[in-house]
Amino acid sequence: MLGLFLTIFVIVLLIFMLYKKVNAHATLLISGLLLLGFSQIFSLGEIIDAKKSLNFGFFDLFQVVNLKMSSTLSGLGLTLMCIAGFSAYMDHVGASYSLFKVFEKPLKSVKNPYLLLVVSYLIVQFLVLFIPSHAGLALLLMVTMYPILVRTGVSKLSALAIIGTCQFIDHGPGSGNVIMASKTALIDPATYFVEYQLPITIPIIIAVAITNYFVQKYFDKKDDFIFDIQKVEQELNEAEGKELKKPPLIYAVLPIIPLVLILGFSKIFGNPIKMNVPVAMLISTIIAIVFEMIRYKSVIETINSIMIFFKGMGHLFVITVSLIVCGQVFAEGLISVGFVDTLVDFAKNAGFGAFAIITFVSLIVAISAFFMGSGNAAFFSFAPLLPNIAKSFNIETITMIAPVQIMTGFGRCISPIAPAIIAIATMTKVSPIQVVKRTAIPMIVAGIVNLVMTYIYL
Q1: What's the pTM?
Q2: For the CA atoms of the chain, what is the radius of gyration?
Q3: pLDDT for 266-319, tens place per residue?
Q4: Are 173 and 277 within 8 A, CB to CB?
Q5: Could you give the CA distance from residue 201 to residue 204 in angstroms, rounded to a whole number?
Q6: Distance of CA 217 to CAs 125, 142, 210, 327, Å?
Q7: What's the CA gap between 266 and 299, in Å, rounded?
Q8: DSSP character for 52?
Q9: Nearest to residue 31, comparing CAs of 16, 13, 58?
């Protein structure tokens, strides 16, 4: 019981620090170290294996951080950094722009504003497989898709609602959360995506598409929206959009190559040749460099551009890999004070089954993502806890982790402090609150469908 009170105290402190705009890294690390310290002071549990201990309690607090960092960098961290390196190179060559151009003509041919919203939303859910960054994809869409939408008669806020929820589901083997989930569940990312994600995410995507049609139409009517092309053109001319490189259309194949390699050489198709994510990203980057050599007819300068790949890796370490480590330290603290055991015992004594505990954890993660403005921070904090909880309820880790991982994006997309929401709201001079009012109902529907599909497959 003492462990539960200490956990509540630390979580309240965590929420307070987030409210005071302390960054998620520091918040999770401080909270984790506090829990580990309480565990030692009150003898609530071992925080480290005796063989790895430094034989001094205070030093062992930081030894936990060291061990988590070492294991993360050699596995999950390297994978994520390679994905980031490839994404940075794709941004450098402008391949994401070319990928969008493939869909530009079909978009412009749709003249009904609300039908255009639905078509745009479906295209975005395809693009997110190749551009697994909420903020990155949102900014790309603001300078490519947004002008098409508002010029066709879509209201500014309806367009922002679609763009703000561009990555409401982290899906595809290139997503950081998918990599984390598959590693935790001990299966390869391709299998996780095809066999465990798609059966749940496809119904969610369809449900949100239908919901967006009616919700955005309702809000536009409520706001007395009237299409004014002159006002639209004036606002677009005043906006300072991101300047994009505009390479040949053939560059559209570059972001797709990693997915083809990962899925093509996976257990799904029974291929004896093995492929992992870092190797797929490296091969794809080399292919992109060859494209650049042919395009610019410059060997030395193009070869030197590989440093963009490595700089992208380093940037991700600062932003995401360090966040994973901090989240794992926090999770280790929760385990050490007995929070997980207390939660499991309470759930069992209350007669809760597997579905109830999955629902409970999913809601906690979604709420955490809302407060943090980050799906990664929330999921990375709770993912290490899930195998033990799943084992206590005699279900496989994958059964629990899939719906929880899917839920993380919903909280982020209704958070007014999420980087993507703030960015698109700032670009169009509206309040982030106005944007999340438009995204809230579709994301609530997504959460409900996620839990319904989980119940069906459980």
Answers
A1: 0.84
A2: 23
A3: 877 777 888 888 999 999 999 999 999 999 888 888 999 999 999 999 988 888
A4: yes
A5: 5
A6: 21, 21, 11, 40
A7: 34
A8: G
A9: 13
